[in-house]
Structure to design on (161 residues):
C-alpha cells in the first residue's frame, strides 16, 4: 500500500511539473508571436481615395528575412511593411511565399517609387527597388491595381517623415 501511495505522489508531482512547463512555454511562445506580429495602421493615399491597411511591421533583420513566408492567405486590407530605416537599394524574392503579392517600394517621405504586381509564389527571381528606398509594403497580389495605387502616390505611416 505504501508503494502505491509513493508512486501516485511521484506521478502527481511529475504531472504537475509537466503542466507548469507547458503553461510557461505556451505563455512565452504567445508573447514572442505577439511581438513578431506587432501591427499598426497605414494609409495609402491615391489621387482619389485613402485606403487603410493594418500592417505587420518587419523592423528587424529576422522579421524582414521571414516576411510573409509560409502564410496560407492574407486578409484584403492587411499587409507587411518592411522598414529598412535608411535609404538603400532593396532586393526581395518570393522563395517559400505561398501567396501572390504586390510589392510597393517607398522613399523615406512615404512616396511610392515602384510597384511590382502579382509576384509569383515560390519564385527565386530577384525583385529590385531600382532606387534607394526606406521601406517596402507587401499586400495581396492584384490589390495595387484594384485600388489604383500608382508611382508617386503616398504611404502614410509613422515610419515616414
Amino acid at each position: 500500500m505504501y508503494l502505491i501511495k509513493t508512486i501516485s505522489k511521484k506521478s502527481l508531482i511529475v504531472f504537475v511539473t509537466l503542466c507548469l512547463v507547458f503553461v510557461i512555454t505556451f505563455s512565452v511562445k504567445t508573447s514572442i508571436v505577439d511581438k513578431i506580429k506587432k501591427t499598426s495602421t497605414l494609409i495609402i493615399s491615391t489621387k482619389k481615395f485613402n485606403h487603410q491597411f493594418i500592417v505587420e511591421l518587419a523592423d528587424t533583420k529576422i522579421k524582414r528575412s521571414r516576411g510573409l513566408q509560409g502564410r496560407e492567405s492574407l486578409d484584403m486590407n492587411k499587409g507587411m511593411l518592411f522598414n529598412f530605416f535608411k535609404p538603400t537599394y532593396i532586393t526581395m524574392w518570393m522563395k517559400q511565399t505561398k501567396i501572390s503579392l504586390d510589392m510597393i517600394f517607398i522613399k523615406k517621405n512615404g512616396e511610392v517609387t515602384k510597384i511590382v504586381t502579382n509576384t509569383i509564389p515560390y519564385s527565386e527571381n530577384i525583385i529590385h527597388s531600382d532606387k534607394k528606398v526606406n521601406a517596402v509594403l507587401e499586400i495581396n497580389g492584384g490589390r495595387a491595381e484594384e485600388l489604383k495605387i500608382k508611382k508617386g502616390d503616398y504611404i502614410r505611416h509613422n515610419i515616414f517623415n
Observations:
- The chain has three helices and nine strands.
